[in-house]
Write a structure and sequence with these properties.
alpha+beta, SH3 type barrels, 2 domains, 8-stranded mixed sheet, 5-stranded antiparallel sheet, 9 helices, 26 strands, about 15% helix, binds calcium ion
Length: about 400
Amino acid sequence: MATYQPNDPALRSWVPVPAAHDFPIQNLPLGIFTKAGKDPRPGVRIGDHILDLAELGLLEGDSLNGLMERGPAAWSELRLRVSWLLNEENPELRDRPRGLVSVKDAEMHMPARVGDYVDFYSSLEHATNVGRMFRDPANPLLPNWRWLPIGYHGKSGTVTVSGASVRRPKGQLSRDNQTAVFAPCRRLDIELETGFFIGANRVFGMVLLNDWSARDVQRWEYQPLGPFLSKSFLTSISPWVVTMEALEPFRVPGPPQDPKPLDHLRVPEPRNYDIHLEVWLKPAGAPRATSICSTNFRHMYWSMEQQLKHLTSNGAPVRSGDLCGSGTVSGAGPGSFGSLLELAWNGTQPLMLETGEERSFLEDGDTVTMRGWCEGAGYRVGFGEVVGTVVPA
Ligand code: CA
């Protein structure tokens, strides 16, 4: 076992995993699920099944907070144990399977109790697009942006696992920036993000994150303290936490940083991860969804380690289970923008969907699905999806 490598592309599981599936034996993401009549419990996803860690005596509890707190040695030990149990060469479970649940028979829950939730703003392309639209087209970035990862504390109580309905929020809207009315949001938007969970003061693992946003509410309320109710009604995350060990083969250098980060924000390269990201939009009753965005997490200017270093640089402690959002992930081209605000350029260039309908912002009944994966040699390490459907105010 000394030379056993859970990331080895050649490993195969006795649990069937279709080609190009998000969850082969090289991934082994962790989540919390229930099956008929049982309490919430931790599991590991493999193909279209879940290995019940509680039934096998490997991990207890209704959240991953305890595991996150135990630190990297415990995380590695569990990953190694689960990988070997699922390995086709190991007869232990292969010949007498137990603790295996079909995903069809399971309901997913929040993987952790989120203590604090922070959302960053770390895509240069996204910040530039927004600055062009709302500030100064010739000078879209504020001077502080390249010196520190801009962020704000969000609302942990409304971070919800994928599948929850997105109730169109009400809020104050202003046409003239002088007076306001209280009404249903008319500019409901998405933000394509990733999130990372903190464990033992480091990055434990990643999920997909949709930071649902009420743009018209945001525009009126955000000055001078930043977003508040325009973001706090709902944040959706994918249910499976992909560990940093599983993502290790997909590390890539980040974009050059100028000015050079101050000492306390310096991290070794490669600091980023090569994660393909996609967004799909499906109107109510449409036969299929339209792809509206394809981009990659590797373009992010500030890395997760830098965000975490910044978050704690004033002496503030973090707790296991705290969640950080990357900020909207936008690439360089129009089809790679991570929000409708940018894709339809503030309503001036509506998107054409495959149904012939146009969209500048979300309509009631729209379903948004975000997907993400790393492409390995003959296998994928994927995140599954985070999905939500808009329902009327
Ligand atoms: Ca955001």
